[in-house]
Amino acid sequence: MSKRKTRNTEDVLKILCDSVQNTLAMATASEIRYSPVVRRINKTCMQPDIGCFVLFSGGFSGLVVMNFSQEAAMEIYRSYMLSMGMPEDELSTNYTSSDVSDALGELMNQSMGQFGVALKNDCKLTVKQNQPKMLIINQALLISINAQIDRAQYRKVSFETANYRPFYLEACMEKVDIIPF
């Protein structure tokens, strides 16, 4: 760990948020911002219109949920596809399209991959993730992990696209106290 600094849950959450922000900004060639404050919440939920979740385990375990409004999902999808050179007339126009879900799932997969690399570099911890799952939903779904998580910590961070469309990251992870020796 750099400068032998103790790390806690919020430090790990910041690494996760930086990974999501960097991945989405690079992939969409646009600005992605997140709030400098975090909310403590009591549970993780998938919210309308598009929800994505991924489990990770290793040095510690957790669940990450990303919730997108249809407007935020479409902005991210369009920017991502256009930055990869796809012609505009070939883009999906409806957020319920599998192309949109596939693109957001791929971006979440890349974000979690970057999180794993950053966590290894900063904290010397390894985590592995499963394949992200995307759902188009019209009402909230409670998501929980069927696993023993020691002192579960729930957090929520607000993000926004370049055009100020909000989306949210929710995380449930073990209480993290990484103490170098």
In a nutshell, what does this entry contain?
This protein has 181 residues and is α+β, with helices and mostly antiparallel strands.
List the helices and strands and how they pair.
Elements lengths: L6 E2 H20 L4 E2 L4 E2 L3 E3 L3 E9 L3 E7 L1 H14 L14 H26 L3 E3 L3 E4 L4 E3 L8 E9 L5 E9 L2 E2 L3
Antiparallel strand pairs: 1-12, 2-10, 3-10, 4-9, 5-6, 5-7, 5-8, 6-11, 10-11
Helix pairs in contact: 1-3, 2-3
Describe what you observe in this structure.
The protein is α+β, with helices and mostly antiparallel strands and 181 residues long. 33% of the residues lie in helices and 30% in strands. It has three helices and twelve strands. It has helices at 9-28, 70-83, 98-123, and strands spanning 7-8, 33-34, 39-40, 44-46, 50-58, 62-68, 127-129, 133-136, 141-143, 152-160, 166-174, 177-178. The strands form three sheets. Strands 2, 3, 5, 6, 7, 8, 10 and 11 form an eight-stranded antiparallel sheet that branches. It has a two-stranded antiparallel sheet with strand order 1-12. The chain is globular. The relative contact order is 0.29. The mean pLDDT is 92.
Low-confidence stretches: none
Succession of helices and strands: EHEEEEEHHEEEEEE
Helix/strand/pairing category:
alpha+beta
User: Quick one: overall form?
Assistant: globular
Count of DSSP H/I helices: 3
Span between termini: 10 Å
- Helix coverage percent of residues? 25-40%
What keyword list fits this structure?
two-stranded antiparallel ribbon, alpha+beta, 181 residues, 8-stranded antiparallel sheet, 33% helix
